[in-house]
Design brief:
Strand order of the largest sheet: 1-17-6-5-2-3-4
Structural class: alpha/beta
Distance between the termini: 18 Å
Order of helices and strands: EEHEEHEHEEEEEHEHEHEHEEEE
Number of strands: 17
Number of domains: 2
CATH topology of the largest domain: Rossmann fold
Helix content: 25-40%
CATH class of the largest domain: Alpha Beta
CATH architecture of the largest domain: 3-Layer(aba) Sandwich
Length: 314
């Protein structure tokens, strides 16, 4: 087995009471919701500039927050995030950190694509683990009924083949079983691969997510296979996706990726795509909804800091 450059990336763990280094970042960017793990990170991190992004999908206002506040208008990830990041005047010389915890998955992925397009290839990602989810296996993250559409995330659109007989879909399986069903139905002819978060963020979470996914097993049909990747390691996720893709790419006409699990895994999907899939018959798809639950978790377990360096993976 060849060594993967993805695994050269540095990660650092801070416990819930840790003090972050002085002037850790030049710019710290977080999406506001009312979860303790989102507000705790914002309060504990040291940065020259601290940015709150307030998105309409959470249905919470940002009045009275510390730091700079940017209110996203509309629901399109490219328009909302692209316009805000443009206003921040980010450059490759700045130490930029994105707290992935509160970001909506399409907005997080678009942020990574935007940074890459603007030659910002070294940055930090923060992710905060909860102690538990409020309703266990019954926790609902996205609201508002059925998805309004399943489509490619901007910045992750592949150049696809007309041959649909050898399509594959890799689904990062989390708690939102309804969204998994919607993605599977959208790519009904694809051969399905499940990616589970193992080891999980917390021991009980693997069991909870498996219970949720059992509710939508029929939508997978006869799955092609299963991939396991640590819930809190984006680089191991990128490596797992890379190994699957390079093992089967001669048998794949089109590959679709749908990260519906932890934000750390979502980052791994993005890193893999930006490094290996641009201009190929690969895209990242997502079931878009209008509303998300702003407070799904209890407590803070620990913080993870990921040092992303896209130049390492070439």
């Amino acid at each position: 087995m060849n060594f993967s450059n993805y695994l050269l990336s540095k990660t650092q763990r801070f416990d819930a009471t840790s003090k972050f280094p002085e002037k850790a970042y030049d710019v710290f960017i977080s999406v506001y919701n009312t979860s303790e793990r989102v507000t705790a990170a914002f309060n504990q991190v040291n940065a020259r500039r601290k940015i709150w992004i307030v998105l309409p999908e959470y249905g919470v206002a940002g009045e009275g927050l510390d730091g700079e506040i940017f209110v996203g208008g509309g629901f399109s990830e490219d328009e909302v995030i692209g316009e805000i990041l443009k206003q921040l005047n980010l450059t490759p010389s700045l130490r930029v950190c994105i707290d992935s915890t509160g970001f909506l998955r399409p907005h997080l992925l678009y942020s990574l694509a935007w940074l890459n397009y603007h030659s910002i290839r070294k940055y930090f990602i923060l992710y905060t683990n909860p102690i538990s989810y409020k309703k266990g296996s019954e926790t609902i993250f996205s609201e508002g009924g059925s998805a309004k559409e399943v489509r490619q995330i901007y910045g992750y659109e592949g150049i696809h083949s007309s041959d649909t007989n050898k399509e594959f879909l890799i689904v990062g399986c989390g708690y939102d079983a309804n969204r998994v069903i919607e993605v599977n139905k959208d790519k009904a002819r694809s051969r399905k691969v499940k990616m589970f978060s193992f080891p999980p963020l917390r021991p009980h979470m693997y069991q909870e997510s498996r219970i949720r996914i059992q509710a939508c097993d029929d939508s997978f049909g006869d799955p092609f296979g299963t991939i396991f990747s640590p819930a809190e390691d984006p680089f191991a996720t990128a490596d797992a996706l890379s190994r699957f893709y390079n093992s089967y790419k001669n048998k794949i006409s089109n590959l679709y990726l749908s990260p519906l699990s932890t934000k750390a895994q979502v980052v791994g999907f993005g890193i893999f795509y930006l490094n290996e899939c641009q201009g190929k018959a690969v895209s990242i798809i997502y079931p878009f909804v209008n509303a998300y639950n702003p407070d799904t978790s209890d407590g803070v377990s620990n913080f993870w800091e990921y040092h992303v360096n896209l130049d390492l993976y070439i």
